[in-house]
Amino acid sequence: MAEPLVVFERVVKRFGEFAAVKDLDLEINEGEFLAIMGPSGCGKTTTLRMLAGLEQPSDGEIRLAGRRMNDVKPSERDTPMVWQTLALFPFLNVVKNVEFGLKMRGLDAPARNAKAMEWLKRLEIAEFAERDIAQLSGGQRQRVALARALVTEPQILLLDEPLSALDAHLVIRMQGVLTRLQRELGITFVYVTHSQSEAFAMADRVVIMAKGEVEQVGVPRAIYREPVNRFVAEFVGRNNILTGEVTGCDAGTVTVQSEVGPCIAPLPDNRSVAVGDRLDLVVSADVVTVSATAIEMDNVVACSLISEEFVGSVVTLFLETDGGAELKAQLQQRDIENLDTRSGTRLFLSWQRSSVHVLPQ
Amino acid sequence: MSSERAIAWFLRAYVGLVFCFVFAPIVSSFIFSFNSDRFPTIPLGEFTLHWYETIYNDPDVWDALRVSVISAVSVSLIATFIGFCTAYTDYRYRFFGKNAYLALALLPPTIPLVIMGLAMLAWLSRIGMSGHLYSIMIAHVVLCTPFAMAVIRLRLAQMDPSLEAAAWNLGAGEWRTMREVILPFTAPAIVSALCLTAAVSFDEFAVAWFVSGLNKTIPVIILEVLQGQVDPQINAIGTFVFITSMTLVVIAQVLLMTRQRKGVPGG
């Protein structure tokens, strides 16, 4: 079987004493949209910069299309990047910016102009070809940066938080542009972001990094529903994480004495569990049911409402059990229209055992 | 409210007075250069171009102008080149002793000119290089390079650090990036450094006086005329020198201002 397009093999990057990336093993397939996500300082941008040749790995090996890249100069890599600051050349107009990569490859002026105009049309900014960069809006600049990076038709495109400076509604539009482009071109996109919604909305696979190490790699659904450890569970989504000792263990279920009382969960198939073990359970905020009276479910917890966060169609309720543990519930606004949502109201949170995810570590 | 207005008027008057104080000698020199009387007295005599004719017909003045122009042009080219290299080194690299490097590079203008001139004379004559046209150039390059470096360094500081990496990323090697990105980006600062260093070299007296020998520059010839006889010729030469330097400085300033409006994309 052919090797994946990009392979990071035990890659380490140290800045002095500080290890920004530790023993990174990562494979990126041809034609996939991979998002690398993590809090700031997790090493995601360093990883991307190593792939572009802007940082040299301290140890390990990076291969692109089977070729060792460690000592290849950035200018000889063909790994164009869309920068967080966009890094458009302010002294060149739009079309000259887009032509830059072609000019470096020695294409003559008419050929590169034709090619650049083709990409400007594709990104729907052909009418701004002769404008100065300073005269463009944020969204238009974004498109120029994309055109400039893609004009040489590379195998892989690197994107370093390119949407972080845009307004929310423009982010959604540019996400559409990016996913469409990636499908049409069929090339690999490596997208670094700290935004969960951007990563989940666009990526085929998501890499979660923390403190220079990969915590989890998987499709967005798996990252969201089956986090592998506490860090991912806390970083992704709105999860309730319950911890406690196993008190019972039979017929495919475990009972854990957690901070909200006994909680019934499915027996994990990837680890053995015995009475007395400590387990972390993830109950996603969007799998719980909220009701004014107790209902028939595997797990029912009585709480009082503390506060409500309303962001349009989705509402998050913050609740507290009698023992003082905090829980979150995320619901559609119409689902709670006939609930009393004043602070202090007694409510019941319920969930089935099948909705509980047991952290494997 | 009225006291605020009073303060505003007072401040305006104050600024006006400062400008008067600074420009009065230059303006009076300008006016008396067209005055027929031999001594600067009021009321003025008749309007005349006589003093300009005198200097126009004086071969010494022409020699001095030739020396001044040759040294100003070569000094500005050499100083701007060295200044650019120094500024780029500072922008691009981190190395041990960088602060000392910067302090040394910016030091020459802080040395009193008389000391600098004396030291230059002592050093250049010891190695047998004093009294030539190139002696003035060497001394002025030392004096002017820090100005060129400061102006270009300021411009480089406004550059998005990703810009250079973006050029590499798009397939430009280091020299190509220098030509296609760094030089175009710093071009306004380079031109203004050229003007500024030319103006400094053109005006500079003390160092030139020490090292020039028989190759007198314009400021040196002014002093000699002044020592010989007090004569409105001085006003005529002074006006000429003032207009030349001001033109260069104004060009430099205009370039500095346009680059602030353009170049750095907002938003």
Question: What would you say this structure looks like, in words?
Answer:
The complex is a heterodimer of chains A (361) and B (267). Chain A has 361 residues and is of the alpha+beta class. Chain A contains eight helices and 20 strands. In chain A, the strands form four sheets. A six-stranded mixed beta sheet of chain A has the order 6-7-8-3-9-10, sandwiched between helices. A five-stranded antiparallel beta sheet of chain A has the order 13-12-11-14-20. Chain A is globular. Chain B has a single domain, classed as MetI-like (MetI-like fold, Orthogonal Bundle), CATH 1.10.3720.10.
Instruction: Please report which band the strand proportion of chain A falls in: under 5%, 5-15%, 15-25%, 25-35%, 35-45% or over 45%.
Output: 35-45%
DSSP strand content of chain B? under 5%
Q: Identify low-pLDDT runs of chain B.
A: 263-267
Distance between the termini of chain A: 32 Å
CATH fold type of chain B: MetI-like fold
Order of helices and strands of chain B: HHHHHHHHHHH
Largest interface: A-B, 35 and 26 residues
Number of separate helices of chain B: 11
Oligomer: heterodimer
The neighbouring-strand order within the major sheet of chain A is 6-7-8-3-9-10
CATH class of chain B: Mainly Alpha
Based on helices, strands and strand pairing, what is the structural class of chain A? Answer: alpha+beta
Break the fold down into its secondary structure elements and pairings.
The complex is a heterodimer of chains A (361) and B (267).
Chain A: E1 6-15, E2 18-28, E3 33-37, H1 44-52, E4 59-64, E5 67-68, E6 81-82, H2 94-104, H3 109-122, H4 138-150, E7 156-160, H5 168-185, E8 188-193, H6 196-202, E9 205-210, E10 213-218, H7 220-225, H8 230-235, E11 239-250, E12 253-258, E13 261-266, E14 278-284, E15 289-291, E16 299-310, E17 314-321, E18 326-332, E19 346-351, E20 357-358
Parallel strand pairs in A: 3-8, 3-9, 6-7, 7-8
Antiparallel strand pairs in A: 1-2, 1-4, 4-5, 9-10, 11-12, 11-14, 12-13, 14-20, 15-19, 16-17, 16-19, 17-18
Chain B: H1 2-32, H2 50-56, H3 59-92, H4 98-106, H5 113-126, H6 133-157, H7 162-169, H8 174-203, H9 206-211, H10 218-228, H11 233-261
Helix pairs in contact in B: 1-11, 2-11, 3-6, 3-8, 6-8, 7-8, 8-11, 10-11
